[in-house]
Every structure is written in C-alpha cells, then in structure tokens.
Write a structure and sequence with these properties.
Length: about 140
C-alpha cells in the first residue's frame, strides 16, 4: 500500500500507472493532469493520488470516452458523490447509452456471422448491418427532424 506522503519519480509513476512517461507529460501539457510538483533539480514527482487519477483516465479511455469528455470527472475529488454533480452524472448516463448502442451494433455483426455459419454459405443476402452504404435507424430519424 502506498504511503500518503510518498512521492514517485516519473519512471516509478509510469510503471505504477501503466502509462508511458511521454503520455504522462502529454496529459499534463493538455491539462488532463495538474502540473507535476518539481524537486529542486526540476525532476517531476507524483503523489499516490496522481497515480489514482492516471488509472482513472486509463479506465475512462477504455470506455471510449475522449480525453476532453473526461476532464469534468477528473476535477472531482476522490470522495465526491456523483449525485452532487447532476450535469456530469447525466453526461455519464448518455455515455453509457452510447456504449449500449455500440454493443447492439456489434451484436448485429455477431448475429450476421452466426447466420452465415449456420447456413454454411456466404451467398449475399441483404445486409442487416448498418454501415457506410446503409443508414442506421438513428441516421434515418435525423433526416426528417
């Protein structure tokens, strides 16, 4: 377990957070992470809470959230209650809906492949998968709105 007063070099932080040193510097540059505290020799040092934030960034990235979209969540303290941030909570609910739509779309792909395997034929039936040449239900709804 990390001590609350512990500080880590960028190399140690990189290893613990699972990010490259260049990525950590980039996240600082774009304001995703606060500027690192520097020792008198100008070397960066990081605290355990910085490493926790870096791990949160990695998790949010895995959800498909852009770096810009995650900024409001990184402003919250570790003990913040999401219920106290209705706007951010609503953004997270909407992000979840977007992920669910992606899952549904991928399920259509799996169903199509399963059908081809079951029929044992690649004969081109009508393609049920929305793509470049076919509009999704969401796109069709937006044409007339």
């Amino acid at each position: 377990m990390m001590s609350e007063n512990a500080v880590f070099s960028i190399k140690e932080t990189s290893e613990q957070a699972g990010l490259s040193e260049d990525t950590i510097r980039y996240y600082e540059k774009i304001g995703l992470l606060p500027q690192a505290v520097r020792k008198p020799n100008r070397h960066r040092v990081y605290r355990p809470e910085d490493i926790h934030t870096m791990k949160l960034i990695t998790c949010l990235k895995k959800t498909g959230m852009s770096l810009e979209e995650m900024k409001p969540y990184l402003q919250m303290s570790m003990d913040s209650d999401l219920a106290d941030f209705p706007e951010e909570r609503e953004m997270l609910v909407n992000h979840r809906k977007k992920v669910e739509a992606q899952i549904a779309s991928l399920q259509q792909v799996v169903d199509f492949i399963d059908e081809k395997l079951e029929k044992r034929s690649m004969y081109p039936d009508e393609c049920p998968i929305p793509g470049e040449n076919q509009m999704s239900v969401f796109e069709k709804q937006n044409i007339f709105s």
